[in-house]
Amino acid sequence: MSYKDPPLTAWEKTRLAWLGARMCKRELLAGEDVYQDDLQDEFDQILSDAWARAGR
Fold first, then answer.
1. What is the number of helices (H) and of strands (E) in the chain?
2. What angle do CA 39, 42, 46 make, to 5 degrees?
3. How far is CA 9 from the centre of its chain?
């Protein structure tokens, strides 16, 4: 079974790209052991909302 991404709106794509950039910046400035769970939770929530919307 292959993994398929949910359909994303332009806003969701922008938010995910922004969060990804923030995660990279944190890791570059603070090292790979930096706390990123807050950004990862927000990233996961956006994807979860997209999956819920796709299911409707």
1. 2, 0
2. 140
3. 13
